[in-house]
Design brief:
The chain is an alpha/beta fold. 47% of the residues lie in helices and 11% in strands. The protein has a 6-stranded parallel β-sheet, sandwiched between helices. A two-stranded antiparallel ribbon has the order 6-7. The structure holds 5,6-dihydroxy-NADP and zinc ion. The site of 5,6-dihydroxy-NADP has 34 residues, from α2, α5, β6 and α7. Pfam families: ADH_Fe_C, Fe-ADH.
């Protein structure tokens, strides 16, 4: 049975090969002072930077830049960007990049006019902004996080070994618009492409593996998962296949834009474990999720057998005839494991640089959620992490 919820997603999407042209229509809606935010230089190599800058110039904007936003953006980089945006008296923030750049732009947006320390306010105390925020637009170049159409902003504090995501409650933090051109993603290295693919898939799992009620979100999730598996196999063999890459881009947005979480308590423990691993290793986000997923799901399977069985049958086409529910459920995870290996995902945390000596620290850094099939104890977290080595 569905409970009560509200739903509003104000992000306007422009999808397709000509989608950047719509920047011309969006920019006049905002003030003159724009801060262009991007990462370590991929957009300069593939020409996206030149195309965006030309449109900004033609529309008469006064542009400052925050460059070098690193994967898993840090709190120190956030402080630096806030200073640049303040000095420039920014009216609008334009993020051009992947999830890190989009997240970072949202973090700057809520911090520019914030008199308090944003790390303490948003990432330690999880408060909502009480100041004026800046509008954000996004030109996406990496597929996976869904940051282009949600209110999440993940920031890493390397000093305290914490990687924390704040999903802001107020939809005004979501990007005002996002430009989704699948062509821009064709220059991604294979490692980043498959990391993003697993991120998409796991976002859906995190929302799917909760609740026992009949819920439309689960049917939507199963369709999205099947589409991701199908397109990922094509993209893995032929990364330049536009059809597959465009479907992955669209699926990523719908996997984490608040739709399939409606009516769900949601799990998110793979992300909590993965983010803690990320805080210690600075590894690519999707790979941290891949490295912890199977030990986690095998651990909680006995507490959610019926859902894992449904996952096996509806997503992985496992035939349940003549098998116990638990056998069918386990075959589903085995099929998922086969697919993960086929894509070349990292299957343990050791390969990401995490060793046994880090387990206690990673466990301390793992936030415990209670929306899934089992609320973990710290001892269980340590046990699972040991299996991830
Ligand atoms: O920095 P550049 O030079 O641009 O290179 C990036 C970066 O090294 C490169 N890249 C991006 N687009 C490219 C490209 N290289 C070639 N061609 C292109 N078109 O890819 C690398 C990774 O980029 P990044 O933005 O870090 O990846 P991703 O999109 O996976 O974002 C990861 C961040 O998002 C957070 C993660 O925790 C992590 O900090 N997440 C945000 C979420 C949200 N907002 O809801 C949810 C997610 O679960 C996730 O936690
Ligand atoms: Zn994720």
């Amino acid at each position: 049975m569905l409970g009560s919820f509200s739903y509003c997603n104000p992000t306007k999407l422009y999808f397709g090969e000509d989608s950047l042209n719509y920047l011309n229509a969006e920019l006049p809606k905002y003030g003159k002072n724009i801060v262009l935010i991007y990462g370590g230089g991929s957009i300069k190599k593939n020409g996206v930077y030149d195309d965006v800058v030309k449109i900004l110039k033609d529309s008469g904007k006064n542009v400052a830049e925050i460059s070098g936003v690193m994967p898993n953006p840090t709190v120190d980089k956030l402080y630096e960007g806030v200073e640049i945006a303040r000095k420039h008296q920014a009216d609008f923030l334009l993020a051009v990049g992947g999830g890190s750049v989009c997240d970072y732009a949202k973090a700057v947006s809520v911090s520019v006019n914030c008199p308090e320390d944003p790390w303490e306010k948003y990432y330690v105390r999880f408060e909502e902004p009480s100041c004026q925020t800046l509008p954000v637009g996004c030109v996406l170049t990496m597929v996976g996080t869904g940051s282009e159409m949600n209110a999440g902003a993940v920031i890493t504090n390397p000093h305290t070994h914490q990687k924390i995501g704040h999903v802001f409650a107020d939809e005004k933090i979501m990007p005002k618009f996002a430009v989704l051109n699948p062509k821009y993603t064709l220059t991604l290295p294979h490692y980043q492409m498959v990391s993003g693919i697993y991120d998409i898939f796991n976002h859906i799992c995190e929302q799917y593996f909760s609740g026992e009620d009949d819920n439309v979100s689960d049917y939507l999730s199963e369709g999205l998962m099947r589409s991701v598996i199908h397109s990922s196999r094509i993209a893995n063999r032929a990364p330049q296949n536009y059809e597959a890459r465009s479907n992955l881009m669209w699926a990523a947005t719908w996997a984490l834009n608040t739709l399939v979480s409606r009516g769900k308590s949601t799990d998110w423990m793979v992300h909590m474990l993965g983010q803690a691993v990320g805080a210690y290793t600075n590894a690519a986000h999707g790979m941290t999720l891949a490295a912890v997923s199977l030990p986690y799901y095998r651990h909680i399977l006995p507490f959610g057998v019926q859902k894992f069985k449904r996952f096996a049958v509806n997503v992985w086409n496992v035939d349940p005839a003549g098998k116990t529910d638990e056998q069918t459920a386990k075959e589903g995870l085995a099929a998922m494991e086969g697919w993960m290996k086929e894509l070349g995902l990292v299957m343990n945390v050791s390969q990401l640089g995490a060793g046994a000596e880090m387990i206690n620290g990673i466990a301390d850094s793992t936030l415990i959620m209670n929306g899934g099939y089992k609320t973990l104890s710290r001892d269980e977290i340590v046990e699972i992490l040991k299996e991830c080595l």
